[in-house]
Amino acid sequence: MIVHNVPKLGSARLEMQVTLYPKDRRKQDIDNRIKALWDALASAGVFDNDEQIDVLMVQRGEIRKGGGCLVMIEELENVRIHEETQRQNATRVQQL
Q1: Mapped to the 3 state alphabet, what secondary structure does the chain carry?
Q2: Does residue 89 form part of some domain?
Q3: Model confidence over 69-95: pLDDT tens digits?
Q4: pTM (predicted TM-score)
């Protein structure tokens, strides 16, 4: 299913959640599919550049006839809060 009238997010900082649905059991590299997805979304004008994506969550879904993907994108309302959270998480990881 293709959804039309997708809002244009311009240069906003973004969070993206992606579920990839493979069409069969063949091995597939998620990272290659994500880059192609980003390029397609930028080309369609959904956002200006994939460097805007500050948070990315990707998962592999069940096999579906024809394959597909589900993409959810949200603007990060306060980048400073997000950056502070990242710094705190990095500090916690270093302490472990």
Answers
A1: CCCCCCCCCCCCCEEEEEEEECCCCCCCCHHHHHHHHHHHHHHCCCCCCHHHEEEEEEEECCCCCCCEEEEEEEECCCHHHHHHHHHHHHHHHHHC
A2: yes
A3: 999 999 987 555 566 777 777 777 766
A4: 0.70
Range of the domain at 63: 14-95
1 part of a folded domain: no
Q: What is the CATH number of the domain that holds 91?
A: 3.30.1330.70
Q: Is the pLDDT of residue 1 over 60?
A: no
End-to-end CA distance of the chain: 44
Q: What is the pLDDT of residues 16-43, one digit of tens each?
A: 999 999 999 998 888 889 999 999 999 8
Instruction: Enumerate residues 6+ apart whose C-beta is below 8 A from 71.
Output: 16, 17, 18, 37, 41
Q: How many separate domains does the chain show?
A: 1
Query: Is 7 within the bounds of a domain?
Result: no
